[in-house]
Every structure is written in C-alpha cells, then in structure tokens.
Amino acid sequence: MQTPQPVLPPPEAPPPDLAYFRGLHELLPAPFFNTQAFLVFFAAVALVYWLTPRRWNTLRVWWLVVASFHFYAAWSYELAFLVLGTTVADYTFARLMDATPRKRVRLTLMLTSVGMNLGVLCYFKYKNFFLDSVNDALLKAGYAPAFDTAKLLIPFGISFYTFEAISYAVDVYRGKVKAERSLPHFVLFILFFPHLVAGPIVRAGDFLRQAHRPKRWNWLRVQVGVQLFLLGVFKKMAVADRMAQFCDPVLEHPTEFNTSAVWLAVLAYAVRIYADFSGYSDMALGLAHLLGYRLTQNFNLPYLSANVSEFWRRWHISLSTWLRDYLFIPLGGSRGGGFATNRNLMLTMLLGGLWHGAAWSYVIWGGLHGLFLIVHRQFRGWCEHRPRLTAVLESVPGTGVRILVTFVCVSLAWVFFRPDVQGSLDILARMFAYSPGRPLLLSNRSLWWTVGFVFACMWLWRTGVFQRVWAKLPPTAMGAGYAVCLTAAMLLAPPVGKTFIYFTF
Questions:
Q1: DSSP state of 438
Q2: Which is it for the CA torsion 474, 477, 479, 485, positive or negative?
Q3: Which residues pair with 257 in a beta bridge?
C-alpha cells in the first residue's frame, strides 16, 4: 500500500480584482516558495545547474536567467517582458556611462535610467493612488471626479528590483562599480529568482562578483541552504499563517470585537509580519546558497531592539541601508544640524512608507517611524549629559524595559501597515477606549504559546546558546532536527495558507 505524500498548503488565492490577465490565480505556481510546484521547479533548476560543468560558467548563468524569466513569466508573460526590457535598458545606459568621461553626459544617462525606473514604478504602483487622491479631494471640494482609474496589475516585486536598478545606475555614475559588460550576468543580477519578488535588495558590486565566479559544489553550503530554507518554511507556515488566523478576522472587522481581542490581534499581527517576511528572506537566502550564491542578511532579531534606531538596523536591513545610502545621506544626512537631521529622517521614513504601499496608511506608518527616530535622537542627546540615567537605562532591567517599549511602539505602528486608514483608526480607538464586542474565535492559549516560543527562540539565538548546542550535535541529530522542523511546519500550518505580505510591495 502506497504511503500518501504530505501536501504543503496551497497559497491563498489573490483578490478577484487582481485576476486581470487570464485568471491570475491559475498562473501562480512558481513565485510561492512553500508549494510543491515550486519545489519541483527548483529541483529541476538546481539539477541542471550543478550538472553543467564548472568551466561552462556562462552557460550556468544563462540557465539561471532562463529559469528566472520563467519564474516570473509563470505569473505574467507581459510583465516579465517589461522587467526584461527595463533591465536591458539599464544595462545599456550604464555601458554608455562608462564609455564617456564627460560628467554632464554621465549625469544625463544616470538620471535617464533612474527616471525610467521611477516612471515605471509610479505608473504601475502609484498612478491610481494619486488619481484617487485627486478625485477624493475634488469630491470634498464639491466637484465631480476628473480622472478615470483603470485596473492595473502591479508587477510582483517591482519596488525591490526598481531599487536594485536605481542603486546600480547611481553606483556606476559615482564610480563605485564598473558597468557590467556581460548582459546575461546583469540580467541575472535583476532577475535572480530567489530575491526577485520580495528581496533582499542586493547591490550590484556584491552580486556580480559572485556571478562571474564559477561555483563548486560544497556540502557545507548545501547544509546552510537547507537549514535556512526549512527555518523559513517553519516561520511562514507554523508561525505567520497561524498568527493570521488570530489577527485577520479582527483587523478586517475591528468594530465587531472587544478591546482585549483587538490588543491580541495587534500582537499576533506584529509576530505574523516578522515571521512572514523574515521567513521569506530565510528561504530566499537558503535557495541562493543551494545555487552557490550568498545574499545579504535581511533580519537580525529586530524585536529585541532597545530603541527604534536599533530596530531599523535589524529590520529589513537591505532596505534600511538602501534608504540610508541613496536617500538619507544625499538629503544631507546628519551633517546640517539638529533640525536638518530631523527633517531628513522624517522625509526618508515618509518615502520609505510610501515605497511599501500606494496608500496613505503606509505614509502614516512611515511618518510614525520617522517620529520615533526623531524622539529617540532627541532623548539620546538629552541623556548624554545625565550619566546616572544612562547607567540605569543600560542596565539589564533598563534594557528590558527599553526593548518592551520599542516593541510596543513598533506594534502600534504596524496597525497602519495595511491599506485601510479608517480601519486602522478604528483599531486604535478600540485599543485605547474600552469597547464591548466579540472575543477571539480561537483559544488565546495557542496565541500566547506561539508568541512565547518565537521570543524564546530569538533570545536563545541572541545569547548564543542555540549556536553552541547546535554546533555540538552529530549529523544524525541535525538531520532529525531538519525533519522535525518540516513535519512541525506541515502539522501546525492551517489548512489554507496565506500569500507573503511583502509580495504586494
């Protein structure tokens, strides 16, 4: 009798209004890492890749380019060709920049490349947002709406690969990197499927060096890749999708639930966002390792940060460093005094919020983080002249209080990390004014056990206990651990999975 094979939960079907090209939900087997369709796809790609002789590195690169194009085209061929076309244009502009020493011509080419990418981004992601905002303003002023908004299918990952292309053009202009001469290597830099949809945002100088270096099969790297991938699968299926069962009903209909249910939903949402996005990043890093590539680390225990500035050094690291290098510092950074620094912080976070989503709620979210950063900067300056207070804050109890306060502030800001401003305001109103209503439909005990487990794992990792114990385990025990991780992910996952939150960005 044949043993039935376990089936990973399918991803959540996209909203009906996104099914604009040929029934979108039928074209989504590849972009979701936690599906059997993707695992079959990746196994075929990796098998051909490693069977190709090492001396034929260019052929390997071409194979990954074809696989990456298919990965995106399985969702939409039209938009796959759009991404490919803008990538070839960026390659051409950079080659032309390198071919001329005239600074004005180089500046024009760089601005053309950046303008093209921003234009595509604004058209697909922000066109309807701005037109709807104008129409709403006209309605409030007593005029009829002046603009028609058509449904547009936003390309998956457009915010991520747009930032990669912009950073490449700017770095070539600044002379930090040489323009890539090989077209397939540059196309792979943009289209490399492990990071294509939701990052991490990679830099050309780091990735292109790896693309040119022939890869050797390395069992240690395979072990790291499998370990990261399984960790990401566990975070996504056993934690993020499980937390969605607690938070989604409340966040979608906050006025129906009581105050305690709303507080618990906000807590579950904070855990869900972390497990969902860091789980995707872990899977992306693991898949890249299995193909011989090393992507940048994107998370470093952000919920154990003692202040919001530290949080942004640990959360979505590839984005925060991009915003620092290509937005905050060009605006003037911290070189212009207190007011200018605070202004630059706020502008950076407002634009960072808008980058996440075409809705005013994301701008508010970015503004809140800008405010948190400014308050922390002012408070830190105030404490510099009070050594006794600084000693108390840096003690173990003081650090614990600061971690708790930071987590509460970040969690409250997450309330606006959704496209519905009014719904977010309703959530905050019920959180801070007692309101009757329905309790959570699921057991609170399960929620608290999951939250406690997540924070305990983060603390064990931060203290180094997990690394020391894991390093001493024999290979058989490690293999058993991998099996337990995968089994637990499938057993604890809800019947219907959820799409990755950051896929919409």
A1: B
A2: negative
A3: 438
Q: Which residue has the tokens 């989504």?
A: 28
pLDDT of the chain, 505 residues: tens digit per residue = 344 443 344 444 443 333 333 333 333 444 577 778 888 899 999 999 999 999 999 999 999 999 999 998 887 888 889 999 999 999 999 999 999 989 999 999 999 999 999 999 988 888 877 887 777 777 877 777 767 777 777 788 888 999 999 999 999 999 999 999 999 999 999 999 999 888 799 999 999 999 999 999 998 899 899 989 999 989 998 899 889 988 989 999 999 999 999 999 999 999 999 999 999 999 999 999 999 999 999 999 999 999 999 999 999 999 999 999 999 999 988 887 888 999 999 999 999 999 988 889 999 999 999 999 999 999 988 888 888 888 888 888 888 999 999 999 999 999 999 888 999 999 999 999 888 888 887 777 788 888 888 888 889 888 888 888 878 888 788 778 778 877 877 777 777 667 777 766 6
Six-digit token pair at 78?
């039209």
Q: Do residues 130 and 146 lie in contact, with contact meaning Cβ atoms separated by under 8 Å?
A: no
Q: Is 289 a catalytic residue?
A: no
243, two tokens = 């937390």
C-alpha dist (Å) from residue 238 to 57, 242, 248, 460 = 38, 6, 16, 19
Contact, 193 vs 295, CB < 8 A? no
| Burial of residue 127 (number of CB atoms within 10 Å: 0-12, 13-18, 19+) | middle
- The per-residue DSSP string of 281-315 comes to HHHHHHHHHHTT--PPP--S-GGG-SSHHHHHHHS
pTM score of the predicted model: 0.88
Q: 268 is written with which tokens? A: 């579950």
Q: Are 306 and 402 in contact (CB under 8 A)?
A: yes
Among candidate residues 185, 195, 289, 356, the one labeled active-site is: 356
Classify the C-alpha dihedral 109-114-117-121 as positive or negative. Answer: negative
